[in-house]
Amino acid sequence: MSVSSSADMQFFHQLVRSGSLSGAARELQVSTPAVSKRLAQLEARLGVQLLSRTTRRIAVTPEGETYLGHARRILAEIESAEGELRGLRAEPRGLLRVNATLGFGRMHVAPLIAGFARKHPDVEVQLQLSVNPPALTEDAFDVCVRFGEPPDARVVARRLAPNRRLLCASPGYLARHGTPKTPHELAQHSIVGIRRGDEAYGVWRLRSGKRLETVKVRGSLSTNDGEIAVTRALAGHGIVLRAEWDVARYLASGRLRQCSRTGRPRPRTSMRCTRCGTGRGAGAGFRGTPARHFAVDGAQASLHTLRTTGPL
Question: Residue 239: pLDDT above 70?
């Protein structure tokens, strides 16, 4: 439908509502002859008579009734669409329930939510951090933060950035024991291990060039907590395998160094999975929050929802 068609519908609807040519002229702030001329042009374009008119009153013809019915429906749909779009731009309000993994949520999600809450005081934000996050199918949250691939096609997801894992150690440890140059040299080093769930402990899968190599590692210190593992690596107890988002600040300050020649761990990707089926304004506002970014592997990505597989 062209712009002129919708304008003609609006004109005819207003003309019928006014009840006379002169009344429509007053509302449109034009002359009565101008209204009469526009009506004649509309009837000529449609090829039917829409109104029977006298100097004092107008009557809608059967063809006019048909046109008027369609015009009212179409104009109402246009108004509804515009109102919905205005609502999306309106200030979000209501309850926003956010779930994230413990380490990433504490370090990256919580600061972003604090900024969002300051910007949108009418939104009540509930942030829950989980060691074992609930399934996305439980519908307990509006936004969930995970890593990895979405569980199924019903989850609305968008990839944010690579989630690289890095082999790191303190400068003191590397000065004492040297930097491993091949994946298999890791077997001669002390490893700060992380035990998680049913995953095989002490087995690292690294990419060396185009080859994927499996390396058995060992160490006297292990934990099920990534933050403790990084703390032990900072203290010089060995090499740790951690996500880049967790160790980037220590690499930047020089407190940790990357064992770059050893091999690269298999890449994992971070995803954004938005589970906001309720359509509430708070969730829509959070999903649309621009310009709050975090850097992963040099890529800028705005936070919303992520999903992961495996330990972080």
Answer: yes
Q: Is residue 197 part of a domain?
A: yes
* Domain range for 52: 3-89
DSSP 136: G
pLDDT for residue 306 is more than 70? no
Query: Angle at CA 207, nearest 5°, toward 223 and 175?
Result: 60
Tell me whether residue 146 is in a domain.
yes
- pTM of the full predicted structure? 0.56
Indicate the SS3 state at residue 162: strand
Kindly report the CA angle at 186 between 185 and 192, in degrees rounded to 5?
Answer: 165
Longest dimension (CA), the chain: 104
pLDDT band, very low/low/confident/very high, at 233 (cuts 50, 70, 90): very high
Here the contacts of 243-247 (C-beta below 8 Å, separation 24 or greater) are 243/104, 243/163, 243/164, 243/165, 243/166, 243/312, 244/163, 244/164, 244/165, 244/166, 244/296, 244/297, 245/104, 245/107, 245/108, 245/163, 245/294, 245/296, 246/103, 246/104, 246/107, 246/312, 247/166, 247/168
β-strand 94-101 against 257-258: which pairing, if any? unpaired
Average pLDDT over residues 209-219: 80
| Residue 311 CB partners (closer than 8 Å, separation 6+) | 194, 196, 197, 199, 226
Could you tell me the two tokens for 193? 């291990």
Question: Cα separation of 116 and 114, whole Å?
Answer: 5
Give yes or no: residues 224 and 132 share one domain: no
pLDDT, mean over the chain: 77
pLDDT in tens, 108-125: 889 988 888 888 888 889
Residue 238: pLDDT band with limits 50, 70, 90: very high
Same domain for 99 and 59: no
Residue 283's pLDDT band (boundaries 50, 70, 90)? low
